[in-house]
Design goal:
There is one protein chain. The chain has 272 residues and is α/β, with parallel strands linked by helices. The chain is 41% helix and 13% strand. The protein has helices at 13-22, 34-42, 54-57, 69-80, 101-115, 129-137, 153-156, 166-182, 194-203, 224-227, 245-261, and strands at 26-30, 47-50, 87-91, 119-121, 142-147, 186-190, 208-211, 219-222. An eight-stranded parallel barrel has the order 1-2-3-4-5-6-7-8, surrounded by seven helices. Helix 9 (194-203) links the parallel strand 6 and strand 7. Helix 4 (69-80) packs parallel to helix 5 (101-115), helix 5 (101-115) crosses helix 6 (129-137) and helix 8 (166-182) runs parallel beside helix 9. The chain starts with 12 loop residues before the first helix and ends in an 11-residue tail after the last helix.
Length: 272
């Protein structure tokens, strides 16, 4: 029997592992502010990711690279204040951990202390092993991220599917096993072939969370603005749009503007 949101007061890494072990899928969505995080948490999502995708959907940047550690802490703090049940994971942004394990540890500790989040997430495999180990040694849970890694977009030059070739696929499997051995409690697999994601999920013991990685992973994640139809220009194959809030919001604002211009708002009942 699965455990539903009413039976779990607070999601932990232990409960996420238990979900994988009993075959219960893990739900994960992004949120970046108090109001949205409140709704997502109340709806029963297991993990809220304060993603560096805030650089795109909140700040309007083309890539995730420009967002700073201070900005990530601001967004994470806003989310944490709203959450009662979900497990909150925060991306360590580009330039705050790569190549320097001491800086990685300082960044992770700042996120945990200043935002109150429950975990950090990092992109990469063997090349960040030292940083992952150092952060974990301080008692900070780490979620890994393999496949399409947006912080490395200028290295790869494209957002196309990763690990289609055998050598890259084998490296991804090896990296997943390295992250598990280091002590990561879960790994995001982004935009890789479904068969490869299935193989990784079967070969490691910790949960895998997919985005564009097929149905055989342990959980799924989407960017909230994409699945609600707030961002309309981004429609990849893996995205299922659950609402069309972009149209709803524009229609509401158009009606408001018209009512103001027509002197219909506020009316007598809306005045003091």
């Amino acid at each position: 029997m699965s455990i539903h949101k009413s039976e779990i007061k607070k999601i932990t890494t232990h409960q996420l592992q238990a979900m994988k072990d009993r075959g219960e899928k893990i739900s994960m969505l992004t949120a970046y502010d108090f109001s949205m995080a409140s709704l997502v948490d109340e709806a029963g999502v297991d993990i809220i990711l304060v993603g560096d995708s805030a650089s795109n959907v909140m700040a309007g940047h083309e890539t995730t690279l420009p967002i700073t550690l201070d900005q990530m802490i601001y967004h994470a703090s806003s989310v944490v204040r709203a959450v009662k049940r979900a497990f909150v994971v925060v991306d360590i942004p580009f330039g705050s951990y790569q190549g320097n394990s001491s800086e990685a540890l300082r960044s992770a500790i700042r996120i945990m202390k200043e935002s109150g989040a429950h975990s950090v997430k990092m992109e990469g495999g063997a090349e960040i092993k030292e940083s992952v180990t150092r952060i974990l040694s301080a008692g900070v849970p780490v979620m890994g991220h393999l496949g399409l890694t947006p912080q490395s977009i200028y290295k790869f030059g494209t957002y196309s599917v990763r690990a289609k070739e055998e050598d890259e696929a084998e490296k991804l499997i090896e990296d997943a096993k390295i992250l598990e051995a280091c002590g990561c409690y879960a790994i995001v697999l982004e935009k890789i072939p479904a068969k490869l994601a299935k193989r990784v999920t079967e070969e490691i013991n910790i949960p895998t969370i997919g985005i564009g990685a097929g149905p055989d992973v342990d959980g799924q994640v989407l960017v909230i603005h994409d699945m609600l139809g707030i961002t309309t220009e981004f429609k990849p194959r893996f995205l299922r749009q659950y609402a069309d809030l972009g149209t709803t919001i524009k229609e509401a604002v158009t009606s408001y503007v018209k009512d103001v211009k027509d002197k219909d708002f506020p009316n007598e009942k809306e005045s003091y």
